[in-house]
Amino acid sequence: MTNGPELCLVSAEGGSAFMEELLEVVADAVRTAGGRARTAVGRYPEAGPDTVYLVVPHEYFVVSPDADFPSAEDCRRTIGFCVEHPGTATFERNAELVRSLGGAVDINHDSTAELRRRGVTVEHFQLGYTPLWDLWGGDLDSPRDLDVTYLGTAERRRSMLLGSYARELAPLRTRLLTPPHEPMTAARVDFLPGKAKFAHLARSRFLLNLHREQKETLEWVRTLEAMTNGCVVVSESSTEVEPLVPGEHLMLARAQTLGAVTAALAKQPERERHLRASAYEFVKTLDMQVSARMLIELAKSLVAGTTPPPPAGIGPARRLASGVRNPANALAVDTPSFDVRFAGERSIGGTPSARGTALSARVAQRTAGARRSSERRWVQASGETPFDAATQADVDVLLVRRPGEVDPDDLIADLIAGTRPPRRVLLGEDGVHPWPKPRPAQMLLHTEPLGRGLTRNALLERSTAPWLLVLDGGMRASEFLLERLLTAADSEGTDVVHCPIADPLDGLIGALPPEERRLRTLPYLGSGYLVRRSLVDEFGGWNSEVLFEGLEDHLFWQQVVTASRPTTLVQQVLLRRLRPDPDSRPLDHDPHRVWSAVTPKV
After folding, report:
1. Contact at 8 Å (CB) between 386 and 414?
2. Contacts of 537 by beta carbon, 8 Å cutoff, 6+ apart
3. Tens digit of pLDDT for each residue in 544-596?
4. Whole-Å CA distances, 173 to 88, 502, 511
5. How far apart are CA 364 and CA 299, in angstroms?
6. Are 466 and 436 in contact (CB under 8 A)?
7. Rounded distance between C-alpha atoms, residue 338 and residue 575, angstroms
8. The pLDDT of residue 330 is above 80
9. Strand, helix or coil for residue 2
10. Distance CA 149, CA 262 (A)
11. What pTM, to 2 d.p., does this model score?
């Protein structure tokens, strides 16, 4: 015997896998409460006499094409399931779209109150424990092979904070998943849907939690997912925390101190165990049945026609959704460029100028002339090698410093003091006149700048190791850099291994895997990678054309993708860089022509 109306929870085709997971949880709660519920993807299924739909407005109506927009009658029998917090652009969008629907529920207290203040009738839906998320089962002695994880879309504020934790988290086994702010429909290295996410949380000791944009409230869904799988939440200070108790169920601290707090907590196993147990016990007391029954009653009132009609027609909602809808397969607009002055298509505005083309040619001619006349000489490493032979990695470091980059001595010291020092460091001083002092690196000196690609290829000729660590001047390295990169290379049989780099202005750069469609629009990957020497030889070294100065690594990553060579992203910040200030390049004067020349035609 059925009980009440049929709730049909609909996700947008091509929308976020996270939203689909959340609606499955709500549907399961409704069924457990004695109601009828099913889920669907795409266009609204045909309605029965007692069908009521439920959607996440800010995603469903924006992601779905105009042809799938429901009728006014279907909207009247639709409940908006609201998940966004005030202080975000998506909340503002949701607040307008929900006015065209017959009813609304919201999982957050702050957004429930704000929607009511704006005249929207909305009920609070309390999320709680669900067996669909629990892959841990409460076993306090189960092994956890990851110390720290983070799950959240990339955003400058959060990425700046994550980069600032690098030193405190360096000794810990860390995995930071920071996918671009795009609909995530399938698993990828930086996005884990469904059971893969819950299994990841069940093997992680701590979850870092940071807010997006201007919001200040606790991310309840992420927090509940973590606690359900025994992962201790360490969050920046938040509102809307109750009934959770800070210090008993989770840890709260200033955003700037989360790295230090987590590192300290990792040394207190009894405190960690108490937090894990208390949080799990508490989450299991959070019952969604009251909210599920409230949802069933709201659906009954929509079927009976006893609720007031929506305050707005579907016309404004259609126009809003159409106006903010992104093209199919649109890329995030805030992924940082690796280059400090050029951001691919975002840097190309207006039309090319004759003056810019002339200046570009003049810079190229100057470099070409320097290549014919500049003195080039090698200086041998001074004294005995400081590298520990017992821990030495079979890796040569290729390090080029160009004008505008900081002295590499500190970086070389970082590498020497690392847990896996390299076989040797080959340093190219390209048009930079170093302070005359002994160095534990073989140096190639160019009296004039000849180009990074040309200098790197000259270092390559001197190299004999099977692996190459490719770095630029002005970087600093974690003592664990080579150890972590080599571990990934050995365990995954990959050709190129890289990691996010902390930048003082852009946060994390180079934090995404290589993707052909993204490389076509933005040079978001650069140096800071470990690569097999055989692959570099196969590619013929690095591009050294004068016109492409500044894009040598971008072209390298294009070749990697085109050749379908395996790569691994080690999701821990093991490098940071000081902000370089490169000399004038052809790219800076004529970006249209240079970018067009390096970008493959479709």
Report:
1. no
2. none
3. 999 999 999 999 999 999 999 999 999 999 999 998 888 889 999 999 999 99
4. 32, 18, 17
5. 69
6. no
7. 13
8. no
9. coil
10. 11
11. 0.92
